[in-house]
Design goal:
heterodimer; A: alpha+beta; Aldehyde Oxidoreductase, domain 4; 3 domains; seven-stranded mixed beta sheet; five-stranded mixed beta sheet; 18 helices; 28 strands; globular; B: alpha+beta; DNA polymerase, domain 1; 2 domains; binds FE2/S2 (inorganic) cluster
Chain lengths: ~775, ~180
């Protein structure tokens, strides 16, 4: 049986220090002044005025531009690279490839993916073959085109469903299965099926999705002697630092990575890319700063994807709604190298609904295509696509309301973790309060009453969810500095990837120090000047960083009250902070402005340090969700209009009502993409190349595709055990149930079940036609 | 040629009115307006998302009309008025659209924001009180991967109301969701 899911999958292979326990007792907040209220982003001005400098906006004096030659074939051996023409071209300063005598260029570039920086055997379209630095981007690209590569093109396999056939071309010589099939088992499924009144079985598939954040992947690299500075669009500066230091053999202290603003990542910017290391090498060789920004097309090929997933699910249920057995066989496309092709793909089957007998099997498969990377809730939206469509089918088979069936099977303990209790399980409230706010029963009754015979058919659907991560945890260190004028400086390593991390942290510090969040200046995401933090991903940034911020603020507060106690002649334990003043708790008339404290004026500042304490022993901390939607299907054209969405989420304490809602609406929209439009298309029969590597052919939901009516219902359960602020993660859960809810609504409207994403008009029209024929 | 100053060898030179400032700029003749704005004029508020005309994040106003600056050859813009996100605020006072985008959380990572702001500005100049559908249509060419668009529509509506002189505030529902 395999161990716990990689709750820290995003830092796998990178050693992270544990941090000491927080120094002061931290009771949960009962009343708050800032936390929980809607608050616009502290850096909103920069983001709307055009003054925020993103890594791609970094232009340095004497900067060169880098460009990468990528393999145009899905599978080929590089027999030789002739860069002589390219080197002679105007403006070209450096050309490197696997054939350049440079020992660094042939080192494995990460612990996760074992390959050299420049490959001599390319296993996917878009693998790096050579790179150029030139005075202008045009010159760099001209030079890339002038490089002669002698390829030996090999047969390829691009569909993981065929990759294990005995005659399939081998991506790796040892075979196309990444590792032995992973199995999990509890109870006895055969017995479970025997006890069931109804047993259903279905095959589902979720197509491969690409993250496509708006800002391209890229960086600027600059050397000062033997120390390197890199400005990178990243979710975690310390991951980039570790990746660079490892590949280049540098001490961590000599690698400074800065990433103040960044234009989205969704999991694709958690680690150093080959391009980061290439930029650093080019800059070193040319002794000039180098900017290397990928083209949009390159980002479709080489910086990760949500892997295509195949899922066969067999489920047994009793007439009263008790689940008796779940049997699940999943496989996924790792890509050309070892990556999380099936990561967490069975987690919901194992953990979301109470079921004593469960068996799962996961097989991770190599194909000649870009490697997978975590994408917003790895494995989960795909697993929900299968499991929650199955729950819907079971409910219908036993004549039970779909919400009731889920309520009947709400777990109280984490079954996948051997029965550890959850600190809180808000699934029941998500289902009940969500259904009530959505008017689930009333809407279903109305649709049944009015009949659904017109060619425009209405339907409602729902799905539940949880996220295996979302607890956060150590390590994290935060430093807060209080100046003698009462203003505050907060120093943390975490990136704000657009979710509002800086804002939430300012609110937390403001809450303890009783200052306006606007008086707090934040330094963040810079390995040279800010404290250690893990990457912002896995819905763990708030539950990881907020307790550390709170601890640092309390450390400042304790020191400040100690100073004030001496001056005011009151015990420190009898003092508190209010509106920039130190106030006696018993006698509020006894107060002193912070700025009037002589000892603080002499000292000029107080520095507090906070650490993220450990998570509770033997308990599971997970966010829960239920989402509901209503659709209108045109049965003549197969078009689906999503009329409204309602999302009920238990992510513990709401830290900022505005950014909370932002996460939920953004997550729903990404889930709509999975359900309706997004799919990587590979030309598997002829060239093996990706045919829709641009936003024109690979379609994201646009302003016209999202419902105008989206509602977010926070289920705010107190969770004092989870961590000192009582918050759990939200970003990922928001996208987990969405696609399944849409598919269930389409089924409710039409009686046709679409088991393969996306629900395109063509696919649905075909299914409707098939259903009519069958009648 | 609008200017008599000598242009550097191998470069093209044009006159633009950039955010109200008459500007002469010399650049390699093959450059797009996006590249000239970002690389030669230092106006990096205009973002680069695809350079393929697909995402709208590079949108600027050219003589008041939204154009994708990644598809516009800078040479073809000689003599035109260009407005970028940097030109929307008056000094440090934000344009009502910028204010409502900030206040409602319509800018998350913010990378798509300049493009949306300029398209919305052009829309409101032409149609001061657009319907939700008109807003959707106008913004449909701009992609955002973070927000789900709803906050963006609401921000445009709120700014439109304020620009009409109404004392509009964000609806409770917009900030808190429906209870
Ligand atoms: S950068 Fe111009 S449309 Fe994307
Ligand atoms: S706010 Fe990030 S892409 Fe729109």
């Amino acid at each position: 049986m395999r161990k716990e899911p990689g709750s820290r999958y995003y830092v796998e292979g990178i050693e992270v220090p544990e941090t000491p326990e927080p120094r002061s007792e931290q009771e949960q907040w009962t009343q708050t002044e800032y936390v929980g209220k809607p608050r616009p982003r502290v850096d909103a001005y920069e983001r709307v005025s055009g003054s925020a400098v993103y890594p791609s906006d970094t232009y340095l004096p004497r900067m060169l531009y880098g460009a990468i030659l990528r393999c145009p074939h899905p599978h080929a051996v590089v027999k030789g690279v002739d860069t002589s023409e390219a080197e002679k071209m105007p403006g070209v300063r450096t050309v490197i490839s696997a054939f350049t005598p440079d020992d660094r260029a042939t080192q494995p570039h990460s612990e996760l993916i074992h390959t050299t920086l420049f490959s001599t055997r390319c296993r996917y379209e878009g693998e790096t073959v050579a790179a150029v630095a030139a005075e202008t981007p045009y010159q760099a690209w001209d030079a890339v085109r002038a490089i002669q590569v002698d390829y030996d093109v090999l047969p390829f396999v691009s569909d993981e469903r065929r990759a294990l056939d005995p005659d399939a071309p081998k991506v790796h010589d040892e075979g196309n299965q990444v590792a032995p099939t992973d199995t999990y088992e509890r109870g006895d499924v055969a017995q479970g099926f025997a006890e069931a009144d109804v047993v259903l079985e279905e095959i589902y598939r979720a197509e491969c999705e690409i993250h496509t954040p708006m800002e391209l992947h890229g960086c600027v690299a600059k050397w000062d002697g033997d120390s390197l500075t890199v400005w990178e669009s990243t979710q975690g500066v310390y991951n980039i630092q570790a990746g660079l230091a490892g590949a280049l053999g540098l001490p961590l202290s000599k690698v400074r990575v800065v990433g103040h603003y960044m234009g989205g990542g969704f999991g694709s910017k958690l680690q150093a890319g080959k391009y980061t290391i290439i930029a650093a090498l080019l800059a070193k060789k040319a002794a000039r700063p180098v900017k290397l920004t990928l083209t949009r097309e390159e980002t479709y090929l080489a910086v990760g994807n949500r892997p295509a997933s195949n899922m066969r699910l067999k489920a047994g249920v009793k007439q009263d709604g008790t689940l008796t057995a779940l049997e699940y066989v999943g496989s996924g496309a790792s890509g050309g190298y070892q990556a999380g092709g099936t990561s967490l793909l069975d987690w919901l089957v194992r953990d979301l609904y109470t079921c004593p007998n469960v068996r799962t099997e996961l097989t991770n498969i190599y194909v000649n295509a870009g490697p997978a990377r975590p994408m917003r809730g790895p494995g989960h939206p795909q697993c929900a696509w299968a499991l929650d469509q199955m729950m819907d089918a079971l409910a219908e088979a036993i004549g039970m309301d779909p919400v009731e069936l889920r309520l009947k099977n709400v777990p109280t303990v984490s079954q996948a973790r051997g029965g550890s209790p959850y600190t809180t399980t808000g699934l029941k409230q998500c289902l009940e309060e969500g259904a009530a706010a959505f008017r689930w029963k009333e809407t279903r009754a109305a649709i049944a009453r009015e009949g659904n015979t017109n060619h425009l058919r209405r339907g409602v659907g729902m799905a539940g969810g949880l996220w295996a991560g979302g607890a956060g945890g150590p390590p994290s260190t935060v430093i807060i500095k209080l100046f003698s004028d009462g203003s505050v400086n907060l120093n943390m390593g975490a990136s704000d990837i657009g979710t509002g991390t800086k804002t939430v942290m300012a609110m937390v510090a403001a809450e303890e120090l009783s200052v306006d969040p606007d008086a707090i200046q934040i330094e963040h995401a810079d390995t040279g000047t800010t404290q250690f933090a893990t990457a912002s991903g896995g819905s763990k940034t708030v539950p990881t960083e907020a307790p550390a911020v709170r601890a640092a603020a309390l450390d400042v507060k304790r020191q400040l009250l100690d100073l004030a106690a001496g001056e005011m002649g009151v015990e420190a334990s009898g003092l508190t902070l209010k509106d920039g003043k130190v106030v006696s708790i018993d006698d509020p008339s006894q107060e002193r402005e912070i700025t009037a404290l002589r000892s603080l004026r002499r000292r000029r500042s107080i520095t507090g340090v906070g650490y993220r304490g450990p998570n509770p022993q033997g308990k599971a901390v997970n966010p829960f969700a239920a989402q509901f939607c209503e659709v209108e299907v045109n049965t003549r054209t197969g078009e689906v209009k999503i009329l409204r969405f309602l999302a009920a989420h238990d992510s513990g304490r709401v830290m900022n009502r505005l950014t909370y809602q932002n996460q939920v609406f953004g997550g729903i929209t990404m889930g709509i993409g999975l359900a309706m439009t997004e799919a990587r298309v590979l030309d598997g029969d002829q060239t093996g190349k990706m045919v829709n590597k641009n936003w024109h052919d690979y379609k994201l939901p646009t302003a016209l595709d999202v419902p105008a009516d989206m509602t977010c219902v926070p289920i705010e359960l107190e969770d004092p055990e989870a961590n000192s602020v009582g918050a759990k993660g939200l970003g990922e859960p928001a996208t987990i149930p969405t696609a399944a809810a849409v598919a269930n609504a389409v089924y409710h409207a039409t009686g046709v079940r679409i088991t393969n994403t996306p629900i395109t008009p063509m696919r649905l029209a075909q299914a409707l036609a098939d259903a009519r024929k069958g009648e | 040629m609008a200017s008599r100053r000598r242009k550097p060898a191998g470069k093209a030179q044009i006159s633009l009115v950039v955010n109200g400032e008459p500007t002469e700029v010399a650049f390699s003749p093959h450059k797009t307006l996006l590249e000239v704005l970002r690389e030669d004029l230092g106006l990096t508020g205009t973002k680069h998302g695809c350079e393929l005309g697909e995402c709208g994040t590079c949108t600027v106003l050219l003589d008041g009309q939204p154009v994708l600056s990644c598809l516009a050859l800078a040479l073809a813009c000689d003599g035109k008025r260009v407005e970028t996100v940097e030109g929307m605020a008056r000094g440090a006072v934000l344009h009502p659209l910028q204010e409502t985008f900030a206040d409602l959380g319509a800018a998350q990572c913010g990378y798509c924001t300049p493009g949306f702001l300029l398209v919305a500005k052009a829309l409101l100049e032409e149609n001061p009180s657009p319907t939700r559908d008109q807003i959707k249509q106008a913004l449909a060419g701009n992609l955002c991967r973070c927000t789900g668009y709803l906050k963006i529509y609401e921000a445009v509506e709120l700014a439109a109301a304020r620009m009409q002189g109404e004392e509009a505030e964000a609806k409770e529902e917009t900030l808190y969701g429906r209870r």
